[in-house]
Design goal:
This protein is α/β, with parallel strands linked by helices and 287 residues long. Helices cover 41% and strands 16% of the residues. The chain contains twelve helices and eleven strands. The strands form three sheets. Strands 3-2-1-4-5-6-10 form a seven-stranded parallel β-sheet, sandwiched between helices. Strand 1, helix 1 and strand 2 form a beta-alpha-beta unit. Helix 2 crosses helix 3, helix 3 runs parallel beside helix 5 and helix 8 packs across helix 12. The protein is globular, with a radius of gyration of 19 Å.
């Protein structure tokens, strides 16, 4: 595969994937509205992929595409649908051999009540019927979200709007990147894979892992507020706050876990980074 196009190349996942692919010898077309810094084997393309013609131009010459649906603007679900439809159509027009689509755990259900998840259901179906080779990655809640809680953890407390023993799926972004690179090398699978820490995590486990990493007590407290009140202080728009409150309500209403055995079977040697590793190797590296 000569060139891999990365949609959302300046995002949390995309930026790491661009660096990993280029470092591994791949040529990368890094697509973003706001291009990043020049780098070896990386060609930056500035494009608004909500425009179908710009999407076609941006994917010219790509043999593979990594697609993270965007959730930006005043109408994030509309933007997500528009951009992904244009990218999938452009990939089909160019005869791209492998599209890796990044969605979310339970995106295949379509009836969760969480717009962030349910909006991805028709997107997955559109890719599956587009006539291109594909693989779908379904991660859970990002461990990197804990960066927002880092100062609180250092002060000895962590809080979520659910009980400390409630389990939910959590994924290290670096594992998504590792899996994406491996699947590009493996080739299209025509299927979806859940990707998260096997067995999930709990709020109490976060507190215990932080205690072990920092060498001082960290306590877990359940925030006695609605999920909407919990997210009210997040530095995001009201529309996004509503979407994340829906998602957190879904977390509380079900066991948000998937079967992770298929991805470890498909990718020889693939082992997700666990919570303690993330805290010691990234969040509190050097402490």
């Amino acid at each position: 595969m000569d060139t891999i196009a990365v949609v959302g190349a300046t995002g949390n996942v995309g930026s790491r994937l661009v660096a990993r692919l280029a470092g591994g010898g791949h040529h990368v077309t890094a697509i973003s509205r706001n291009p990043g810094e020049p780098a070896d084997r990386v060609e930056w393309v500035q494009a608004d992929l909500a425009d179908a013609d710009q999407a076609i131009d941006a994917l010219d010459g790509a043999g593979g595409v990594y697609l993270t649906p965007t959730l930006s603007g005043d109408e994030p679900l509309v933007a997500e649908t528009s951009v992904t439809a244009n990218v999938i159509d452009a990939a089909a027009k160019h005869g791209v051999s492998h599209v890796i689509l990044h969605t979310a755990l339970d995106a295949d259900r379509g009836d969760t009540g969480a717009g962030i998840l349910d909006n991805k259901t028709p997107i997955e179906r559109a890719l599956a019927s587009a006539g291109v080779g594909y693989t779908i990655l379904r991660p859970g809640w990002f461990l990197q979200n804990l960066w927002a809680a880092r100062d609180y953890l250092e002060q000895g407390v962590v809080s979520m709007p659910w009980p400390g023993d409630m389990v939910w799926a959590a994924t290290d972004i670096n594992d998504i990147v590792t899996a994406a690179v491996a699947f590009f090398e493996l080739g299209p699978t025509g299927r979806a894979f859940n990707i998260h820490i096997p067995g999930g995590i709990t709020g109490q486990q976060i507190a215990d892992a932080a205690t072990a990493t920092l060498g001082r007590d960290v306590a877990y407290y359940e925030a006695d507020v609605s999920t909407r009140d919990y997210v009210d202080g997040f530095p995001i728009s009201d529309v996004h706050k509503d979407l994340y409150a829906e998602l957190f309500d879904y977390f509380r209403s079900t066991t948000y876990l998937g079967d992770t055995a298929p991805i470890t079977e498909a990718l020889e040697g693939f082992t997700p980074r666990v919570l303690n590793q993330f805290l010691s190797e990234e969040l509190f590296a050097g402490n």
